[in-house]
Design goal:
4-stranded antiparallel sheet; 5-stranded antiparallel sheet; single chain; 367 residues; mainly beta; elongated; 31 strands
Length: 367
Amino acid sequence: MTLVVAVGFAVVGLAAPSSAHHNTITGSVSCRDGGGWDVTWEVVNSEQRTERITGSNRPQAVPVGTTLGWNESKTFTEAITTRPTSAVVLTLDARWSNGVTQTNSGWIAASAFSEDCNTKKVDAPEVPVVDECGPGNAHYGTVPGGPWTSVVNPDGSLTITADAGHVFTNGQTVLTYPVPADSNQPCVEAAPQVPVVDECGPGNAHYGTVPSGPWTSVVNPDGSLTITANPGHAFGNGQTVITLPTPTDTQQPCPVSPPEVLPAEVRVVKAKAKQLDKCGRASDLFKVSKRSGVVYKVDGQVIRQGVWLKARTLKGIGAKVARSYTITVRAQSADATYRLEGKQVWRMTFSTRPCAKAPEIAPHTGS
């Protein structure tokens, strides 16, 4: 950074003729990084005696209590952020070890504070370059925020202009970044998986629909398939053109369907059963209607159709039946050409109440 230096002259306060005790105070100024000014004060003790600073009008630079040894010189610094309109003065009160006191001053003229130091220097931003796969697409990414504005030029270069009161570290207020170089790295694509269609019959295997992607395809006269990557793209092995061989035909014959056999007409039949429950058990009867296509069973046994059957003669009906007994008749179709409709199970309950006895003497009939 360019330094602007100014020297202040020492002002020696009045003292008795027998005393030469004093401090020599000089000052210099330079531009401060980031804007403003750095001030350096030099204080020199004139005596071969120790002195102590007892008063300071700029304690931020020279604190009260500071000591200087015999003929010692010390430097002190401070930062000034606002350009002064009059001289900057440092006044110090001092007391030496022999008891002598003295006040001295030094100053820096206001003109020494250069207006150029008001400009804040900033580092130029680092702008990333985005270069995705494919040719001719390199470009600048997002410009970091800062005291500047930016614009992308038609040719792809980038111009960044510092805001007022700022300058880049090279002293310029406008920077132009060149057109970014493109790597022309192709985009790598996986080769498409193309299905083979092989319908029944000989010699008809062929490639099906080629999946969409950054490529074109063509079926060759021999049935092979050539796939070409679009510009800026390549397949995984670095090739831009691949050829799939002629698909192999399985020669699978087409199946012949047997002639259609129509099922026989299904006939609908209804089953029917009824019972007679007389006194005692000897005359308990039941009958099932005679129907073609129907089979009747009791306890799993096929029974005759169209005749009255004695219930008591059936399996499971013992002699010690107390009050009643039940038999179950079930109907089913004789084969697949018949379909039963309606009731198909009958539970028949028979009582065992005894028959009334005839009178020993016939009643008078009036004849």
